[in-house]
TrEMBL record:
Residue ranges occupied by any Glycosyltransferase 2-like domain in the UniProt entry: 5-129
Top-level EC class as recorded in UniProt: transferase
EC number per UniProt: 2.4.1.266
Pfam families: Glycos_transf_2
Lineage, broadest ranks: Bacteria, Bacillati, Actinomycetota, Actinomycetes, Mycobacteriales
Name of the protein in its database record: Glucosyl-3-phosphoglycerate synthase
Cofactor: Mg(2+); Mn(2+)
Keywords: Glycosyltransferase, Magnesium, Transferase
Amino acid sequence: MSSVSVVIPALNEAPTVAKVVEAVLADNPLEVLVIDADSTDATAAEARSAGATVLNWREILDTEPIPGKGESLWRGVAAARGDIVVFVDADLTSFRPGMVNSLVAPFLNDDIHLVKADYVRTFGDHTTGGGRVTELTAKPLLRALFPELSHIRQPLGGEYAIRRSTALAMPFVSGYGVEVGLLIDVATQFGTSSIAQVDLGSRSHNHQSLEALGSMADVVATTILQRFGHDLPVVQREPLGIH
C-alpha cells in the first residue's frame, strides 16, 4: 500500500482551512501538510489546531519564494514523505471524508501517474455555473491545441493526486497555470492513459472577482500556449529531481 501525503496550499484561508484539514485527516493519510504562503490571518493557527502540520513556505528549501499557488505546491512536494501526493485547496466548503481515498485508489494501477477529480462546480445558490476560467479559457484552448486532453472535465481543479516520483520530475508553474501545466506535461511524458479521473460529486469554494479571474485566465492561457510551443514567458520552478 502506497503512503499518502496531503498538501494544502493556503494563503489567508482561516474561515475554511480547518474543515478541509479535518475532512482530509478522516482518511488517515501519512501526513497533512498545510503550506502557508505568509498568511496575515489565523490560517496557520486554524490549520494547526485542526491537526495539520503547518509549514511556512520559507521553511522549505533554501530559496526565496516566487509568489503563486504553484510555488506552494512545488515546496509541498519537496517536504512530503509519501509515495503519493494529494493536493487539496484550502478554500473548499464541500470537501468530505473519503475524497482523498478516492483520489488515491486508481494508483493500484502502476501505469497511472496523475488522478484528477471530476465534479460539478457550484456558483452561489446554483448547482452549476462555477469554473469560469475552466470553461471559457482552459477547455477551449485544450480542445484546439491538445484535443487528446479534451475529455478531462476539470483541468484546473485543485483536487488531484500525483506520484511523488513523477512530481519530482516535473516543472511547476509558479502561478495558477500549475494544474494545466502538470496535466499537459504528464500526458506528454507518459501518455494520456496515465491520467485517471474520479467523480467527487460537487465542489463549492469562494468565488473571485472578474478582475482576479482575468489574471488567472492570462496565466492559464499563457501556460497552455507555451506548452504547445509558443515562445511565451512562463514563470516556473524546474523539477526538484534535478537538484
